[in-house]
Write a structure and sequence with these properties.
- The complex is a heterodimer.
- Chain A is α/β, with parallel strands linked by helices.
- Chain A has 16 helices and 13 strands.
- Chain A has two domains: about 40-270, Rossmann fold, CATH 3.40.50.720; about 285-380, Oxidized Rhodanese, domain 1 (3-Layer(aba) Sandwich).
- In chain A, the strands form two sheets. Chain A has an eight-stranded mixed β-sheet, with helices on both faces. Chain A has a five-stranded parallel β-sheet with strand order 9-13-12-10-11.
- The two termini of chain A are about 45 Å apart.
- Chain B is of the alpha+beta class.
- Chain B is built from three helices and seven strands, in the order E-H-E-E-H-H-E-E-E-E.
- Chain B has helices at about 5-10, 25-35, 40-45; strands at about 1-5, 20, 25, 55-60, 60-65, 75, 80-85.
- The chains are: A alpha/beta, B alpha+beta.
- The interface between A and B is medium-sized, with 46 and 24 residues.
């Protein structure tokens, strides 16, 4: 962590003294603490759900140098939780949108933008300029990358992750504390744990967890309180219960243990079993394009449309298909007529491909999957069908 | 004793967030749990029949890896938690 001197750089001007007044009058922060905040250099990896509240509060609190890493563009589905971005920002790089808000909240801080994906090639260089890292990314390969980079660089990793109504938070990679790999030595195989894009997330949840991350960052900078080291905080927003589990440093940990075997950053996509960008495991099954299906239906062809989504998705939009959720399909195949031509569809085409495989194995010969799902139907055939 | 089921796994337990089971070893409890909810088996156990490495099991607030692993005894008043890794952000 940056050592504090009463150098010019961390001296507060009168405008800053007024701005941070509620910190300064508190002995736990005071002038010395506020100067530590000003001297602190914190890297937020990801400017999304967790990164939004995290960066906003760190900026407001006066963290002097705030680094942001993101390569994404703001889209409409982000706005339900990524509160640093506004409707007008849709289509803009998240970094530009976020940096603008942070500068507006606090012009006294220095925002460093890294418009790139964090990779094994650039992570250590980027981390070098910072004292603390806050991991607000959204996928396993980057989680392991951030962890390993923090351990190798000796920088604490203030961690949070979320799923639907639940969140987890901790601080990893401190000198004596456990790291992410001590908790989760191996990632789950791709496809087994749904992402927020697949499983959904309550918009407020990254708010709760991101603010917990910001709190822990500020405590680390101030050197006060009991940091969340060696503890995993579990937040269940649905029952509004907070629980805590004990984490231990694994002496056998390949990264932070007594005899580490990982001495440099590795290929994390390979480590997590992801070969390319396409994480989803899609089987090759017979498909039909939306335009083709439309032509056939218009010509009066006898086609049975099977919707394999969930009932709550059917309520959002549907194209009049017969609803049998994928999970129920094995038990409900008797509702289908194998002599008819069947087109199965879901939201994007992944579940319907699985349905087609199941049905073909069960002897249904004339079944196809709607390529691109109802999203593609909306794009190519009927824009009145909403996308979600 | 009580087993707490995390959100990602509730789809396999008929949306139950807690399941009450008899005391025994962690292994006994997990076998009973997966015989009641067979779809959960693939999530918790690998093809070799062993607990998957990314699934952490806690008895009260302690990781079973630092107790007696699957042989850890779970008493009637204990709470067992299954903690999967999630990565959303």
């Amino acid at each position: 962590m940056a050592t504090l001197t009463s150098s010019q750089a961390t001296t507060l001007g009168n405008d800053e003294i007024l701005r941070y007044s509620r910190h300064l009058i508190m002995p736990e922060v005071g002038m010395a603490g506020q100067q530590k905040l000003k001297a602190a250099r914190v890297l937020c990896v990801g400017a999304g759900g967790l990164g939004s509240p995290l960066a906003l509060y760190l900026a407001a609190a006066g963290v002097g140098t705030l680094g942001l890493v993101d390569f994404d563009v703001v889209d409409y589905t982000n706005l339900q939780r990524q509160i640093i971005h506004t409707t007008n920002d849709v289509g803009r790089p998240k970094l530009d949108s976020a940096a603008e808000k942070l500068g507006a909240i606090n012009p006294f801080i220095n925002v460093r933008k890294f418009e790139t994906k964090l990779t094994s090639a650039n992570a250590l260089d980027i981390l070098r300029e910072f004292d603390i890292v806050a991991d607000g990314t959204d996928n396993f390969p980057t989680r392991y990358l951030v962890n390993d980079a923090c351990v190798l660089a000796g920088k604490p990793n203030v961690y949070a992750s979320i799923f639907r109504f639940e969140g987890q938070a901790s601080i990893f990679a401190t000198e004596h504390g456990p790291c992410y790999r001590c908790l989760y030595p191996e990632p789950p195989p791709p496809g087994l744990v749904p992402s927020c894009a697949e499983g959904g997330v309550l918009g407020i949840l990254p708010g709760l967890l991101g603010v917990i991350q910001a709190t822990e960052v500020i405590k680390l900078v101030l050197g006060s309180g009991e940091p969340l080291i060696g503890r995993l905080l579990l937040v269940d927003a649905l029952s509004m219960r907070f629980r805590e589990l004990r984490l231990r440093k694994n002496p056998e940990c390949p990264v932070c243990g007594a005899n580490p075997t990982v001495h440099e950053l590795i290929d994390y996509n390979q480590f997590c079993g992801i070969r390319g960008e396409e994480a989803a495991v899609t089987e090759t099954v017979p498909e039909i394009r939306p335009e083709e299906l439309k032509t056939k239906l218009d010509a009066g062809d006898d086609i049975f449309i099977l919707d394999v989504r969930e009932p709550h998705e059917y309520q959002i939009c549907n194209i009049g298909g017969h609803l049998i959720p994928l999970g129920d399909l094995p038990a409900r195949m008797n509702e289908l007529d194998s002599s008819r031509e069947i087109v199965a569809h879901c939201r994007s085409g992944v579940r319907s491909a699985k349905a087609v495989t199941l049905l073909r194995q069960a002897g249904f010969g004339k079944v196809k999957s709607l390529a691109g799902g109802i999203l593609a139907w909306s794009d190519k055939v009927d824009p009145a069908v909403p996308k979600y | 004793m009580k087993v707490l089921i995390p959100t990602p796994l509730r789809q396999y337990t008929g949306k139950q967030s807690t399941v009450d089971l008899g005391p025994g070893s962690v292994d006994d409890v997990l076998r009973e749990l997966t015989s009641r909810y067979p779809d959960l088996r693939k999530q918790l156990f690998g093809d070799d029949g062993r607990l998957r490495k990314f699934v952490n099991v806690y008895v009260n607030d302690e990781d079973i890896r630092y107790l007696e692993n699957e042989n850890t005894l779970v008493k009637p008043d204990d709470t067992m938690s299954i903690i999967p890794s999630v990565a959303g952000g």
